[in-house]
Write a structure and sequence with these properties.
Blueprint lengths: L4 H5 L5 H17 L11 H15 L6 E2 L2 E2 L6 H13 L3 H27 L1 H12 L2 H7 L5 H19 L7 H18 L2 H17 L4 H4 L2 H22 L3 H15 L12 H8 L7 H10 L6 H20 L12 H16 L4 H27 L7 H24 L2 H31 L2 H10 L5 E5 L3 H7 L3 E4 L6 H4 L8 E2 L1 H8 L5 E6 L3 H6 L6 E5 L3 E5 L2
Parallel strand pairs: 3-4, 3-6, 4-5
Antiparallel strand pairs: 1-2, 6-8, 7-8
Helix pairs in contact: 2-5, 2-6, 3-4, 3-22, 4-5, 5-6, 5-8, 5-17, 6-17, 8-9, 8-10, 9-10, 9-12, 10-16, 15-17, 16-17, 18-19, 19-20, 21-22
C-alpha cells in the first residue's frame, strides 16, 4: 500500500485502512532484525535476566538479579518478558519484542487520539511524526522499562482527554480506560505512573475551570479498578519481602528524585539537547507547535491543544527537576509533541506554509552541514567511531534530506517537506544502527563470553565476574560470583548470607587456586596481578578492549 502524497492530505479516509497502513509500515520498522544484535549491558541484559530467573525459579512475585533481591523497578516488564520467553524461547528477539510492540502501540494510539481530537489528517500525521522520530524508533527496540511506561501513560493520558473533551457528553468508557492504564503505568515504573497523569489532569481542570470533571470521572469505581490492577503485586511482594517498602518507595522514589544518590545528576537543561536530538527531524518544529497552540487557544480544539501542551511541558519539567536523569526518561512527552507538530503541518496543508518556513529552512541547512561533517569525520578524527563507509552513508542521508527540505521551502510545498523528512528519518534508522551499534556491542555486550561459559562449564564450575555484568549471567544461564564490589545489586547482597557470592580480591584468588573449575570475567589491567599472585596461571578464552574471560583449567 504505497504512501502517496495525496493520501496524507485527505480529510476523510477509512480508519481501518489508516491503521493497516501504519501497522504495516511501523510493524516492519519496529520488528525488523529485532534479534540481530546481542543484548547490551546493563539495561537490556538486566531486564532479560530478571524474567529469565523468574521462569527458572517459578516465582513471578519477587524479582531477583543474579539471584539476589532486586527492587529498583516494578514488575510489568518482567512479567511481559517472561511471557515472551515462555512463548518464543529465550532470545534477543523475545527479550525486545514487548518493547517493540509497546512502541508500535504508542504510534497506533497516537493516531487514534489525534484523529478523535482534530480529525483524520492530524491523527495520521501525528502517528507518522512519532514513528518517524529516529530516536523513538531506536529506543523502542531496546529492552527498557521506559517504553512500556510510554505506551501505558500515552493511553492513560489520551483516554482522559477523550472522555472529558465534550463537556456535555462525557464518555465513561474512556475514564475507565484511563484508570486501567494508569495502574499499568504504575506497574511499569512506579508512582510516576500515577503522579504525572494526576499533575496533567489537575492543571487541565484548573486552567479550564471545568470542576465538573471531578464528578464525571467515576472516581469511586475508577479508583477501585485502579487498585484492583495496581495493588495486588505490591501487597504480595511486601508480604514476602518486608524490606521492599522502604527501598522501593523511599529510596527509589523520593531519594532518587530529591538527591544525587543514584549518581545520575545532570543540569536542569540536560533534556533540551536530548529532546532536540532524539526527535530529529521534527524537533525544529517544536517551538512552532507550542506557539501555534497558544495563538489558537481560542479556536475549536484549543482545549485539546492546551491539554497536549500541558502533557508535554509538565512531564518534561518534572524530569528536568529530578536529580536522576537518563535520556529515555522523557519518552512520554513524544506523543503529545508529535500531535502538536502534526497540527502545524495540517495547517500548512490547508495553505498556510508560513509557520513551517523558518524552522524548515534552518533545519535544511543544518542537515547539509551535518552531512558534510559526517563525510569528513572519519578522515580527521583521531579514533573515529565510524569508518569512511559509515560516514559516507550517514553524511549522504543528511545532505539528501537537507536538500529536499530546502527545495520544499523554496516551492512552499508542505507535502514534499513532510514526506522528505519522514523518508530521510526512516532511511537513517535503517542504516545508522548497523554502522554505530557494533561499537556498543563490543564494549557493552557479553553474549560471546557467556555462550563460551555455557558451552564449556560443567555443573560444578564457578562463574566469576569482576564487578556485575548482567549479560554474563543471562547468556551463561547461571549465577555469577562477584568480586571487587556488588554494583547495583548492593542492596540484595546484604540480605541473607551471601558471603560465598560476593568476594574481595583475596577471596577470589583463594577460589581461583582451589579445586573447582573457575571461569572469570576480569578487567584487562587485572590480568598481570592475577597471573603474578596465583599458583594457577590464567588461560585466556576470550578478550575485548576492556575484558578477558579466563579459566584456571
Amino acid at each position: 500500500m504505497p504512501l502517496q502524497l495525496d493520501y496524507l492530505t485527505r480529510s476523510h479516509e477509512s480508519r481501518r485502512r489508516d491503521l493497516l497502513l501504519l501497522t504495516l509500515l511501523f510493524g516492519l520498522l519496529f520488528l525488523q532484525l529485532l534479534g540481530h544484535f546481542p543484548l547490551v549491558d546493563p539495561d537490556e541484559a538486566r531486564y532479560a535476566e530478571i524474567p529469565r530467573e523468574m521462569l527458572e525459579r517459578g516465582d513471578l512475585i519477587t524479582p531477583l538479579l543474579n539471584y539476589v533481591k532486586y527492587f529498583e523497578k516494578p514488575v510489568l516488564l518482567y512479567w511481559l518478558n517472561a511471557i515472551s520467553f515462555y512463548l518464543f524461547g529465550i532470545s534477543e528477539f523475545s527479550a525486545r519484542l514487548v518493547c517493540a510492540l509497546s512502541g508500535l502501540g504508542t504510534v497506533l494510539f497516537s493516531y487514534h487520539l489525534g484523529r478523535e481530537l482534530f480529525g483524520r489528517r492530524t491523527g495520521l500525521l501525528g502517528a507518522l511524526v512519532l514513528g518517524g522520530c529516529t530516536g523513538f524508533l531506536i529506543q523502542a527496540r531496546i529492552n527498557i522499562t521506559d517504553i512500556p511506561l510510554t505506551f501505558t501513560m500515552t493511553v492513560a493520558l489520551g483516554s482522559y482527554i477523550l472522555a472529558a473533551r465534550d463537556a456535555d457528553h462525557p464518555r465513561p468508557g474512556y475514564y475507565y480506560l484511563f484508570y486501567l492504564f494508569a495502574a499499568l503505568a504504575v506497574l511499569a515504573k512506579g508512582l510516576i505512573g500515577m503522579v504525572l497523569p494526576g499533575a496533567v489532569i489537575f492543571w487541565h481542570i484548573v486552567l479550564t475551570r471545568r470542576w465538573r470533571i471531578l464528578k464525571e470521572m467515576r472516581l469511586g469505581t475508577g479508583l477501585l479498578l485502579f487498585l484492583a490492577v495496581a495493588a495486588p503485586w505490591f501487597v504480595l511482594v511486601c508480604q514476602r519481602n518486608p524490606e521492599f517498602f522502604q527501598f522501593f518507595f523511599i529510596h527509589e522514589h523520593f531519594e532518587r528524585f530529591l538527591t544525587k544518590v543514584h549518581r545520575r545528576y545532570q543540569p536542569f537543561w540536560y533534556f533540551i539537547p536530548i529532546l532536540f536530538g532524539f526527535m530529529i527531524p521534527w524537533s525544529f518544529f517544536i517551538p512552532t507547535a507550542l506557539r501555534n497552540f497558544w495563538r489558537n487557544r481560542a479556536l475549536p480544539g484549543g482545549e485539546a491543544r492546551l491539554y497536549l501542551a500541558l502533557w508535554a511541558i509538565i512531564i518534561f519539567a518534572f524530569f528536568s527537576k529530578s536529580n536522576s536523569k537518563l535520556p529515555a526518561y522523557i519518552l512520554p512527552v513524544y506523543p503529545a509533541l508529535a500531535i502538536l507538530i502534526a497540527g502545524v503541518f495540517d495547517r500548512a496543508f490547508n495553505g498556510d506554509f508560513r509557520p513551517l518556513r523558518r524552522p524548515a529552512l534552518a533545519f535544511g541547512w543544518l542537515l547539509v552541514l551535518l552531512g558534510c561533517a559526517a563525510l569528513l569525520y572519519p578522515l580527521v578524527a583521531h579514533r573515529p567511531l565510524v569508518g569512511p563507509i559509515g560516514g559516507l552513508v550517514i553524511g549522504s542521508i543528511f545532505i539528501l534530506q537537507g536538500a529536499v527540505a530546502l527545495a520544499a521551502v523554496k516551492r512552499g510545498d508542505p507535502r514534499q517537506l513532510f514526506v522528505g523528512l519522514l523518508a530521510g528519518s526512516i532511511l537513517l534508522f535503517l542504516t545508522a544502527p548497523h554502522i554505530v551499534f557494533p561499537l556498543f556491542v563490543e564494549r557493552k555486550s557479553y553474549r560471546e563470553p557467556g555462550q563460551i561459559v555455557k558451552k564449556l562449564a560443567e555443573p560444578d564450575a564457578v562463574l566469576v565476574s569482576q564487578g556485575l555484568r548482567q549479560g554474563l549471567s543471562y547468556y551463561a544461564e547461571r549465577r555469577c560470583v562477584i568480586f571487587d564490589g556488588p554494583g547495583e545489586i548492593e542492596f540484595g547482597s546484604k540480605i541473607g548470607d551471601q558471603s560465598a557470592w560476593f568476594l574481595n580480591r583475596d577471596g577470589f584468588r583463594t577460589l581461583w587456586n582451589g579445586p573447582k573449575p573457575v571461569y572469570a570475567m576480569i578487567l584487562r589491567d587485572y590480568l598481570d596481578e592475577l597471573s603474578g599472585g596465583s599458583a594457577i596461571k590464567p588461560r585466556i578464552l576470550w578478550q575485548s578492549s576492556k575484558h578477558y574471560l579466563v579459566t584456571n583449567r
